[in-house]
Amino acid sequence: MLIMVTPRKFCRFNKGDSLSLGVPDPTSLTLKEIPDGGFCLSSFLVALRRDDHSKVLMGLINPSAPWDHIGALDEQRVIRFGKGWMLPSSHLIYGETPSDAASRIAGEQLGLDLKFGNPIVASDTYVPKTSKKNDTHWDIQFIFRFELEQNSISANPNWEKLDFIDYRKSLNQITRYHEDVLRSAGL
User: Fold this and answer.
1) What digits encode the pLDDT tens for the residues 91-142?
2) Exposed/middle/buried for 83, CB within 10 Å: 0-12, 13-18, 19+?
């Protein structure tokens, strides 16, 4: 069998000492920096309406809410993404588990005290439309799919509107590539 050797960069990130070796990793197999296009770890809540699975809970963000604190959205992103439907979601806080992030999102963004088990894990790479250098961005998504009663959701000051929408009829109104998250969630 002929094996073609090509240069590879494995996703083994370690800026400091290797935990398994106890010293800096001298090999070229370990990357010291994140990709130029960025790398995000995020949790998403995909809450289906219990009596109608064609409806998923999404919101229109309130631009005056503290989205930098509850969803890792700076002011420019709030403006850019504030016009479309978005899933309750957030980047993970450094050191936070995906399920703890999902519980935090449920509390901060929905006012619900929920605990979560194991997520659907999806990964996506893409060149953002706004990229000037064609750098590829990499997302690892932790998706928590579950059911809610329609009457379990009340108004929340972080959202201009929070409602169960028919995602199939609203794909062109969904922002932040969240239609891809819905697809990864099996919708």
Assistant:
1) 999 889 999 999 999 999 999 999 999 999 999 888 877 777 878 888 999 9
2) exposed
The closest of 84, 91, 42, 46 to 63, measured between CA atoms, is 84
User: In angstroms, rounded to a whole number, what is the distance separating the alpha carbons of residues 30 and 15?
Assistant: 9
Those residues with Cβ within 8 angstroms of residue 170's Cβ, 6 or more apart along the chain or in another chain: 58, 85
| The pairing of beta strand 52-61 with beta strand 39-49 | antiparallel
Amino acid at residue number 18 = S
Alpha helices in 47-139 (DSSP H): 67-70, 75-81, 98-110
For residue 35, the cross-strand partners are none
Alpha-carbon span 57 to 77, nearest angstrom: 21
CATH 3.90.79.10 fits 52-184, yes or no: yes
